[in-house]
Inverse folding.
């Protein structure tokens, strides 16, 4: 690019100027303080131009500080000295690169802190898309041991999933190594929760009742022979050896206990007991014929509460068998 005169060595951007005007006295060399317009001299020494009677002085003709200009040769009475100080400014309501980088999230990937609030009046407030895998939102725990990820995602089948995992790994959705699908809403409306606590213990044992005592139902009596391949124990909260289902979380649980019994006389009662207290029971007629009974209840349980099947009788010589005990978390 051609220039008139010498090529500039510095480009000044985002600057304006402030002009100070002084009328010299005979032999005056130092100009400072208030000028004829009552402006007090205040300049940046590196950004100053000095004119004498309209002519630009060379920088070697004077020395300058932030509050004074000293001429190398004294001025005459009535000479007009003009000092122009450059003033840096910023355009209102704009950011330079540094302030913009600190304020705005980078479109190609970035990290932000604090809560994000989205207010939207249209029908799509937030859309996060991973190529080929659908939309997802992932939360990483702050664990200092093994960080876990909780994700909400859609997959190629248009199902909606909630999952957890440990380390990154591509899969049906953007899931993780050792990942667990916690809930799936199928596109047709079905909802599945593969880790919902549930158990089922169906048995074909025909247990002889030889004494008149109170007995909890366990694998040592009515659950001694479970029907092969039919037992369910999601989460391993059911223990057949103790006859206990222990609630992993607080909530409402449904329990069903069915059985067959035969006694010729006396009484025989079967119970559902929570922490040893009766929640439901059923008597049986002692007429010498096989009878089938079913107990069912929905009850609130706290975490670590347990439910058991139980019977009591006052006559020996009968049988109880074909018991089926099951339960699940409802809500």
């Amino acid at each position: 690019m051609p220039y008139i005169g010498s090529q500039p060595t510095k480009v000044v951007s985002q600057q304006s100027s402030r002009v100070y005007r002084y009328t010299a006295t005979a032999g005056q060399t130092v100009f400072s303080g208030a000028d004829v317009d009552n402006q007090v001299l205040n300049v940046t020494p590196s950004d100053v131009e000095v004119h004498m009677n309209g002519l630009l002085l060379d920088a070697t003709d004077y020395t300058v500080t932030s509050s004074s200009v000293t001429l190398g040769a004294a001025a005459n009475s009535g000479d007009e000295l003009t000092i122009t100080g450059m003033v840096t400014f910023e355009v209102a309501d704009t950011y330079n690169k540094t302030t913009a980088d600190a304020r705005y999230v980078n479109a190609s990937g970035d990290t932000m802190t604090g809560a994000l609030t989205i207010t939207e009046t249209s029908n799509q407030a937030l859309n996060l898309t991973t190529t080929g895998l659908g939309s997802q939102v992932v939360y990483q725990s702050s664990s200092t041991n093994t960080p876990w990820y909780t994700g909400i995602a859609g997959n190629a089948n248009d199902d909606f999933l909630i999952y957890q995992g440990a380390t990154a790994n591509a899969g049906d959705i953007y899931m993780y190594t050792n990942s667990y699908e916690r809930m799936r809403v199928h596109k047709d409306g079905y909802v599945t929760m593969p880790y919902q606590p549930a158990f089922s213990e169906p048995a074909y044992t025909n247990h002889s009742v030889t004494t008149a005592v109170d007995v909890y139902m366990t694998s040592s009596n009515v659950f001694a022979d479970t029907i092969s391949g039919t037992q369910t124990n999601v989460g391993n909260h059911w223990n057949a050896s103790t006859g206990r289902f222990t609630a992993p979380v607080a909530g409402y649980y449904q329990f069903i206990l069915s059985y067959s019994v035969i006694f010729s006389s006396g009484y025989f009662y079967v119970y559902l007991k929570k922490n040893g207290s009766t929640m439901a029971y059923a008597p049986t007629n002692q007429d010498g014929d096989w009878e089938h009974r079913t107990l069912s209840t929905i009850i609130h349980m706290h975490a670590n509460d347990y439910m058991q099947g139980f019977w009591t009788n006052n006559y020996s010589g009968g049988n109880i068998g074909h018991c089926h005990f099951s339960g699940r978390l409802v809500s």
